[in-house]
Amino acid sequence: MKNIIFILCFSMGCLYSSAQAQNDTAPEKKNTSQWNNAIVDKHIIPAYKALETSTQQLKQSSEDFCKKPDKQGFIQLQSAFINSLAKWQSIQHIRFGPIENSLRDFRYQLWPDKRGKVNKHLNKLLIAKDSKALQGDKFPHGSIAIQGFSALEMLLFNKDSSFQDFVTQGNSNYRCDVALAITNNLSRMSTGLVTDWAGDNNSFRNAIATAEQGNSYFENELEVSSNLLNNLSTQLILIVDYKLDRPLGKNIRKSIAKRAESWRSRQSLSNINNNLVALKALYETGFKPWLKNTQLKQQIDTSFAEIHTTMDNINKPLYEAVKDPSLRPVVLELRRKIAKLKQLCSVKLPAALDLPLGFNSLDGD
C-alpha cells in the first residue's frame, strides 16, 4: 500500500513539474495595446498637432507677406516654411491611417520626384495664371504635385526667385496667390489629420484603442503594432535608399546633389535629423518597453547615439557635402551607420518582438 501511494505521489509530482516547466518556457501572450496607445497619445497626435500649428503659422506668414510684400516679410515666410517642413519631417514616417485618405501623404510632399512633375506642373500653373484653379474647392482636387512643400519650396527658394518676384504686380501678383493656395491647403490638411486622429469616438485613435477586440480597421492589437514597426523600418529604408543614396551616387564624380530632398532650402540633413529624432521617440515609446533582449536594446541605443555624433561632423548642406572630398567620407559613414540601424530595426527587432514586418510601401516607388 505504501508503495502504491509513493508511486502515485511521484507520478503527480512529475506531472506538476512537467506542467510547470511548460509554463516557464511557454511564449508570453502579448498584449501591446498599452504601447500602441502610448505611441498614439505621446507621439503621433502631438506631432500632428505641432504640424497643424506650424502650418497655421505658415499660412499667416504668407498672408502677412502678400498684404505687404517686403524683404523682411519674405525672410519670415521662408523661416515659417522651414519650421513647418521640420514638423512634417517629424511625422513623415506614419504611413497608415488618415494620412492615406485623399492621397494626403503625396499632397504634403511629392518626393522623390523622379520625373520632375513638381517643376512641370508649377511652371504650367504660373504661366496659365488660372485663378479659378487656386480656389479652395478646386485646388485640393488638382495636381498633387503643386499642393505641398515641394512646390512651395520652389516658389520660395529657387535660385531664380526672390521676394521681388512676388512684388512685381503688387498685391495681385499670381505667385502670391499660388503661395496662399498652397499654405491654405497645408493648413487645412493638417487640421483634418488632427480631427481624424483625435476628434470623436469614430477617430482613428479610438480604432487603435479598441483594436484588441477587433474592429473594422484591425483584427487585433498586434496588427497595429506591426504597422507601427513597419513604419519605423520603412522610414529608415527611405533615409538610406533615397535621402542619402540618390544624391551620393556611385562615386563623387557621379553624385547628383539636386537629388537630395529639400536641397533648395538647404534642409536635407535637417530633414534626416528630424526623421531620426522622431523614429527614436517612436521606438522608445512603443517598442523598447516590451523588448526583453537587453543586448539588442543596447545596440539600438548605441546606434542612434553614433548616428547623432556623425551628423554633427557634417558642417555643410548635403548637396555640397556629397561632392566635398573631405566631407563625402563622413556622409558615407553616416549612411553606413543608418544602414546598420535599419538592419537592427528591420530584422533583429521584429524577430525579438515576434512581430511580422509586413509590406514595404516604398517597393512600388
What does this entry look like structurally?
The structure is a single chain. The chain has two domains: 33-212, A middle domain of Talin 1 (Up-down Bundle); 220-364. The chain has helices spanning 2-25, 33-67, 71-89, 104-108, 117-128, 149-157, 163-167, 174-198, 204-209, 221-248, 268-286, 294-312, 318-321, 328-353. With 365 residues, it is mainly alpha-helical. Helices cover 65% and strands 0% of the residues. It contains 14 helices and no strands.
CATH superfamily placement of the largest domain: M75 peptidase, HXXE motif
| CATH 2nd-level architecture of the largest domain | Up-down Bundle
Q: Overall 3D geometry?
A: globular
The largest β sheet comes out as: none
**What percent strand?**
under 5%
**Regarding CATH, which class of the largest domain?**
Mainly Alpha
Percent helix range: 55-70%
CATH fold field value of the largest domain: A middle domain of Talin 1
List the helices and strands and how they pair.
Layout: H1 2-25, H2 33-67, H3 71-89, H4 104-108, H5 117-128, H6 149-157, H7 163-167, H8 174-198, H9 204-209, H10 221-248, H11 268-286, H12 294-312, H13 318-321, H14 328-353
Helix pairs in contact: 2-3, 2-8, 2-11, 3-6, 3-11, 6-8, 10-11, 10-14, 12-14
